[in-house]
Every structure is written in C-alpha cells, then in structure tokens.
Amino acid sequence: MGVKISGAKLAGAVAKAGGVGTIASVGLACDSPHYTGGNYFEANCKALGEALKEAREIAPLGVIAVNCMVALTDFVDHVRTACENGVDAIISGAGLPLNLPELTKEFPDVALLPIVSSLRALKIIVKKWSRSYDRLPDAVVVETPLHAGGHLGATKMSQVTDPDFSLEAVVPEIAAYIRDEIKVDIPVIAAGGIWDHKDMMHAFDLGARGVQVGTRFACSEEGDASPRFKQAYLDATEEDVVLIKSPVGIPGRAIKNPFVARYLEGDVESKPCIANCLSHCSYRNERKAFCIAQALVDGYQGDWEHGLFFCGDNVHRCTRIEKVKEIFADFFPSGM
C-alpha cells in the first residue's frame, strides 16, 4: 500500500469506521513540500508526522498504525517518528523486525505487530523479543503470497503458489503455536487475498481473529492514490495480474502495464535512484532492474506508461469506487 496508496486520508477513514487505519511510511516525501531533492530522509519523517496528524484529525478516537518496512535504510527513523507523533501501533515486515522493542522502549503503549509468512519467522521473532526485551508481539500479521499484492512474503517464485505458504496452512499452524506454546493472548491477523465478509469468516475459521485488507481499500473513494491509479484497478482483468522479480530481490504482484511489460521482456529504462532508500536494491548496487521508489511514485501519481501498479490477485473484483463505510458494511452486514 505504499508509496502513498494508504496515506493519511485512507488511514483516517478506516480508523473512523472502526478499523485500524494504517499509513505506509515509505516514500511519503515524494510530494512533500519539505522535499527539496537532497533531503529525502528528513523530508520523509516530516511528512510522516504530518500524515499522522491529518489522520488523527479525521479520526480523533480511532486507532492509527504505521507500517514501517525493515528493508528501508531509514527504518529506525520511521519507527521513532511514528512513536513521537502519537501512533497507536507499528506494523513491521519486509524483513524481521528483531530490534523493534528496543526502538520503541520509550513508548510502551505502542502496540507492536510483526508481519510474518511462516511459523519459522515468528519463532525467531518471539525468541529474540522475549530473551532480549522481555516482550512479545501484541498481535501477528500473517501475510502469505498466494493472493497478496505488492512485495510478497517469499524469496522464490516457486513459493508463491506453494500450498505450504498459503493462509490455510500457515494461520492454523501459527494459531496453534501461540495457543499451545506461548500460551499468551496474541491475536492472529490474516492478510493476502481478503476481499469480503466470506473471506474474513474463512480466516476466522482458520484461527485468525482479524484481517488486513489492501487492494479493495486502495480503490476506495478515500484512498490516497490518484484517480488514474484507481482506474487501472477498475480496468484490470485476472489476466492482467503478473508476478515480477522486484529490485528488492523478491517476487511482487502487479498489473501488467506498459512499464511492467517492458521489464518482463528485459527492456526497461529507469529513472535515477531517489535516495538509496532500501538496504538491498539491485538497481542501486548493480544497476539491474529499476528504481522501485520512482516506479511506485509514478504509479501513485497515475503514470500508466512508466509507473508500477502493485495489486492483489483479486484486483479484477474492483468494479467501482467504493466509500470506506460501504466496504465496512459489506464486511459487517449485521454491524460491528
């Protein structure tokens, strides 16, 4: 949901409706007045603080979270900025957030939610957090690659469709581990391909107690992306959704627009690197692939020819621009 697909407006609307409104911290500087071209990291933190303030104005009593990617060069600054600006929860993936309790120790009321795609990853986090910080996750987001959008929790293309990495396999396994071995009340939140009430109830049957939704909210009226970005979702068919190898080095799921088509054919030009924003990037290190930050910014702004439009494989189900409250009504037909 980055760059800026889930920003202040969407997070505020979701929080106001009773969900956990989540701001993606990556790339917020891209259209910030604070960004002058050479101060990307500083400008991004200022933009994150302002986004949290804006979301809080929309939903004064709502729950606001920030998704901070471990793979970001300035991950530490994102976490601290979020905490200093009153965030309720930090959701963290794209790597194992092994030092997250240390970074947030001055803010004990901020909930910590790691994102994992396997039981093995959760065990590593639990072992580190409990031994080093006497802390356990407040909840766990289980995101598996079979249907999810954007960067997927898999290192190989073959893992994307591997049944062992499906929600049906991983959620029950993690729920059982929490119940039988940790023996502490840690909710499991299922993510990846969740579209409606039926999907949510299926996740609950697997052992989850919450769900995370991306693609459907990205195409909402309150979604922060440009109208052209949302139109790309409305126009997409099942056949338009493809897997690519991201410059980050892992699979990603996106709409096959002209930019992605050229990339898959081995013929793509990239705009210059923005700011060395990733700790691992094949474009920065080897000039392979493309600057993913630039491509995602172009996507957010609606540049169909040059942008990267990440999406879940259920994007074809986006047939109209919905309001956030309509999406909630579909998930909770009997009310919350």
Description:
- The chain is α/β, with parallel strands linked by helices and 336 residues long.
- The two termini are 25 Å apart.
- The chain has helices at residues 8-17, 40-58, 75-84, 100-103, 119-133, 157-160, 167-182, 197-206, 215-218, 227-235, 258-264, 282-286, 292-301, 324-331, and strands at 20-24, 63-67, 89-92, 111-116, 140-143, 150-151, 188-191, 210-212, 241-245, 251-255.
- Helix 4 links the parallel strand 3 and strand 4 (111-116).
- The mean pLDDT is 94.
- Helix 1 (8-17) packs parallel to helix 2 and helix 2 runs parallel beside helix 3.
- The chain folds into 2 domains: 8-226, Aldolase class I (TIM Barrel, Alpha-Beta Barrel); 228-301, no CATH class.
Cα(first) to Cα(last) distance is: 25 Å
Residue fraction in strands:
5-15%
Topology order in helix (H) and strand (E) letters: HEHEHEHEHEEHHEHEHHEEHHHH
What's the tally of helices? 14
Q: CATH superfamily of the largest domain, please?
A: Aldolase class I
CATH topology of the largest domain: TIM Barrel
Mean pLDDT level: 94
Low confidence ranges: none
The CATH architecture name of the largest domain reads Alpha-Beta Barrel
Shape: globular
Total number of domains: 2
Q: Helix/strand/pairing class, anyone?
A: alpha/beta
Which CATH first-tier class of the largest domain would you pick?
Alpha Beta
Query: What is the makeup of the main sheet?
Result: 7 strands, parallel
CA radius of gyration is 19 Å
| Spatial order of strands in the largest sheet | 1-2-3-4-5-7-8
- Tell me the helix content: 25-40%
Number of strands: 10
